[in-house]
Amino acid sequence: MKSQLFTIAIAAFVASLSYARSYANEAKSEQRMNVLFLASDDLNSWLLGDTNRYAGKVVAPNLTKLAESGVNFKRAYTAAPVCSPSRTAFFSGVAPWTSGHYHNTPGANSSEPLKSALSMAGFFKKAGYSTAGYGKITHGWDQGEHWDEKIGHKRDPAPPGAPLTPSGRGEQDWGPIHLAEEEMNDTLNVDNAIHRLQQEHDKPFFIACGTFNPHMPWYVPQKYFDMFPLDEVTTPELREDDLDDVPEWGVELTLGKQKYVDSVFEHGLHKEGVQAYLATTAYADAQLGRVLDALDKSPYRDNTVVVFLTDHGFHLAEKHHWQKATLWEEATHTLMMIRAPGVTPAGGAACERFVSLLDIYPTLAELCGLEPPDYLDGRSLVPLLRNPEAEWQSTAITGLTSKGGPTWHPYLSIRSETGRYIRYVDGQEEFYDTSKDPHEWTNSIGDPEYASVIKRMRAAIPSPSDAATPLPEVLKNTRE
Ligand SMILES: [Ca+2]
Ligand SMILES: [Ca+2]
């Protein structure tokens, strides 16, 4: 039996090699595929509906249409639940537990391993692509020399009289914006991306476009608020004592936001907050839809890979927290959609395998027939793009430190079909059986029923001490 299995495995391996060769040759014989890389900031996974805990209405017809025309990864997770380390990870292909970059501060430039990495833009540029980026794509780690054109993101000015909410403080505020939609920065960045798409391209292109919305503050035109009448807005389900079984380091992650959540509740504004988040999401979707429409109307529709992702999730009072920077489902679960003409099923498909945003870099490389750098921490999702139900070793890892905390003591979380495991400094842990407890309400770390599952997940946690080692040595160690 064993030898039979071995023979089958060898045959499959040989078949996959010859397939990979023919695919690469095919790609080389014509012009390579273009890439349209789209991102949103702080957009959580509510729009996935059936795999999430939120029962309310998200209006995102354009992202829905994209999801239905490619592969919609319903179990995609960020490598870090904060802007800079998340974006640096997917754009460099280097995981936080390799780079040591786990939070917005200290900046990515203090990471030795990242100095030897090549950004995705640089990778495509070196392969002969034209590269252009508009809006929020990277955060703190960019390799600007690899962009032929790069117009970064600017925040819209706050409306006169801001804060507009009685709970408002800093960026945690919302309300109708005083600008016309066509004057807003996300709109202008999308205009630039459309303009670029509409040009004639004599070589393959990598065009990236990222919306800042629905990052806070939530200032968008009134019409987007009007799409969500308050009496129809559903708020996420909460449990009053949810933090009681969370280790102190996990609770610490929420401390900075607890007063804000209290203030939202004191003013009776939870529903309004959710409404504003949905409104900014609808605005972001409308903008992304304009780029997608422009692609569809261009000569490049059938030779352009489209990827859409969001850098991490967002809490709206779950676990008494607001925003991001936790290791629970709300902050780690992301959106990832990929449409690859000739590869993804024409009628679209959902994929339930657990994947990471780190997988995007090697996936795009393979789709474009290019050899990826050998240091990448992710793995190509092409087998899942061809067959979303393919066998897959399914785990997704997320890392974080407390703000400005030591990177050699990161908190790490693993998510797979068996649940979520988190380990903080000093070995404090959480485990959730997500099949019975999708809200991650009951920390079952001490339950003997899960002892063997927890043991396996513990063993899969990467060694963060690697982050102290320069890249080449790290790579040698981790590639085995
Ligand atoms: Ca973000
Ligand atoms: Ca709990």
From TrEMBL:
Q: Which family does it belong to?
A: Belongs to the sulfatase family.
Q: Which UniProt keywords apply?
A: Calcium, Hydrolase, Metal-binding, Signal
Q: Which GO terms describe its molecular function?
A: choline-sulfatase activity; iduronate-2-sulfatase activity; metal ion binding
Q: What is its EC number?
A: 3.1.6.6
Segments passing through the bilayer: none
Q: Where is this region: Disordered?
A: 150-170
Q: Tell me which domain of life the UniProt entry assigns to the organism this sequence originates from.
A: Bacteria
- The segment(s) forming the Sulfatase N-terminal domain are 34-369
In Swiss-Prot or TrEMBL terms, this protein is called: Choline-sulfatase
| Names of the cofactor(s) | Ca(2+)
InterPro entries xref list = Alkaline_phosphatase_core_sf, IDS, Sulfatase_N
Lineage, opening ranks? Bacteria, Pseudomonadati, Planctomycetota, Planctomycetia, Pirellulales
Q: Which residues form the signal peptide?
A: 1-24
| Record GO cellular component, one term | cytoplasm
